[in-house]
Amino acid sequence: MIKKYRKDGDVSYALGATVVMELMKRRPQDVRAVYISPKSNVVAVIEKAREIGAEIIESEKAFNILSPKENCFAIAEFGKFDAKISGDRHHVVLVNPSNAGNLGTVVRDVAAFDCADLAIIRPAVDPFDPKTVRASMGTVFDINFELFDSFDAYVKRFDNEIVPFMLGGSPFREKSFTAESGAKKYSLVFGNEATGLPQEFERFGAVRIEQSKNVDSLNLSTAVAVGLYKLYTSRSGNTHSVLSTAEHSELA
Q1: pLDDT tens, 183-209?
Q2: d(Cα 159, Cα 204) in Å, to the nearest integer?
């Protein structure tokens, strides 16, 4: 019987046909049931559910419980899964993120540039919350992410070069990433949407994304995308090159 989502439970829900399809493609083994609204004929979802052997349930009650106000016609119940991050990849580290929409969009950033895993430092918004899952458009099923009780617990496991993003840091355009084999991996560290990173992170050598004075700061997911783009394009084998500091100066 379907119930409201619980953070301490062992299941979550994918809301909407697109997200349900991504779940069934990426992690079919975790799908427990697919709920279909009697008001809609989502043929592709039904066919895919049959293909993977998932239970199909037609129920308006499921939508009243989980998505009463949204334009949602398919819901999948899935078991929470373990997707631990790797020491062989770069990392995006979010310290105490508090907004499900932002976290979901950051997950999309991580998937889009495919060069890093995602570490989340508690207290934090739940990556399995259906709002986060939906904001990620299903890409949460295609990345590695892991929660840590503290930043200290994170750095004890990974000997990465820490790159904190802070308003008082040095210009990010002056930061270069080493792409050579065997070089240290990087951890791009971002703070809470409202408060940013504590001053203690300055000891790692903070950077700031240069911007006009028209806004106070960039949205968290936008800042992560900027950082990841530079990291992604610095890797050997990518055809898009990052502008050098001199080229940036000429354009300024």
Answers
A1: 899 999 999 999 999 999 999 999 999
A2: 13
